[in-house]
Design brief:
One of its GO terms (molecular function) is ATP binding. The chain has 250 residues and is of the alpha/beta class. It is 40% helix and 24% strand. A six-stranded mixed beta sheet has the order 6-7-8-3-9-10, sandwiched between helices. It has a four-stranded antiparallel beta sheet with strand order 2-1-4-5, covered by helices on one side. The structure holds adenosine-5'-diphosphate and magnesium ion. Magnesium ion binds next to helix 2.
């Protein structure tokens, strides 16, 4: 393979992905390629399958048919390889999902020690650096419940980064936050994007989408209806569903 081909090979590729929950057809022929350094923003009405799509990418959900590849490799089914995949694909959820009975520092060092077999001291150095990067290093010895929502979400980002992920998935990371805390989390995401992190972000923060995304995907009813640059999508949506959605949120 020459250098050119390597550069253009997608980091994340979904091909003809189908997913049903019983009778409910939640993902319908999803095809998506995310290149290294892409910041993809996924938007669409509630119930359109955005979270399910994200969850299939680190195999928190299985798929019924189709194919998902990270860096050219099919998703592992189980065991050590699956733990490694989950490390390569960082995920930040709406509800911060920190371990409630562990300190902030332990939340960040846990996976590097368990999965990457890092020495405790090295994991702590790494974690403190990341906590400083997201501006919560002074909280390291506290428990999650002692932090604000915005702080907890920044810890969740640091925890994912500690595994040196190839791609970060954000599923409505600011939706559960009080309004005054939204920007402190978005700022961290903007910084990551500027550092060339590959990101897939489900968000209703249209300011973020316009400023930071290089591609927008619009989903409705389990399908990708539109895909384009922010300018193309926001200035010139093609489908009635997208026009209707935008008229309600902008
Ligand atoms: P979105 O994130 O776009 O709001 P979701 O992916 O959460 O959409 O959900 C898509 C559809 O799948 C919704 O109708 C939702 O109720 C349904 N759904 C999601 N998870 C499950 C599940 N574990 N079991 C059954 N139905 C589910
Ligand atoms: Mg969702």
């Amino acid at each position: 393979m020459n250098a050119n081909q390597a550069a253009t090979e997608p980091l994340v590729e979904l091909s003809h992905v189908e997913k049903r929950f019983g009778d409910l057809h939640v993902l319908k022929d999803i095809n998506l390629k995310v290149a290294k350094g892409d910041v993809l923003v996924v938007i669409g009405p509630s119930g359109s399958g955005k979270s399910t799509m994200c969850r299939t990418i680190n195999r928190l959900e299985t798929i019924d048919s189709g194919d998902i590849r990270i860096d050219g490799h099919p998703l592992p089914q189980e065991g050590k390889d699956l733990a490694k995949l989950r490390a390569e694909v960082g995920m930040v959820f709406q509800s911060f999902n920190l371990f409630a009975n562990k300190t902030i520092l332990e939340n960040v060092t846990l996976a590097p020690i368990k999965v990457r077999h890092m020495a405790k001291k090295d994991a702590e150095d790494l974690a403190m650096g990341l906590l400083a990067r997201v501006g919560v290093d002074s909280q390291a010895s506290k428990m999650p419940s002692q932090l604000s929502g915005g702080q907890q979400q920044r810890v969740a980002i640091a925890r994912a980064l500690a595994m040196h992920p190839k791609v970060m998935l954000f599923d409505e990371p600011t939706s559960a936050l009080d309004p005054e805390m939204v920007n402190e989390v978005l700022d961290v995401m903007v910084e990551l994007a500027h550092e060339d992190m590959t990101m897939i972000c489900v968000t209703h923060e249209m300011g973020f989408a316009r400023k930071v995304a290089n591609r927008i995907v619009f989903m409705a009813d389990g399908q990708i209806l539109e895909e384009g640059t922010p300018d193309e999508f926001f200035e010139n949506p093609q489908t009635d569903r997208a026009k209707d959605f935008l008229s309600k949120i902008l």
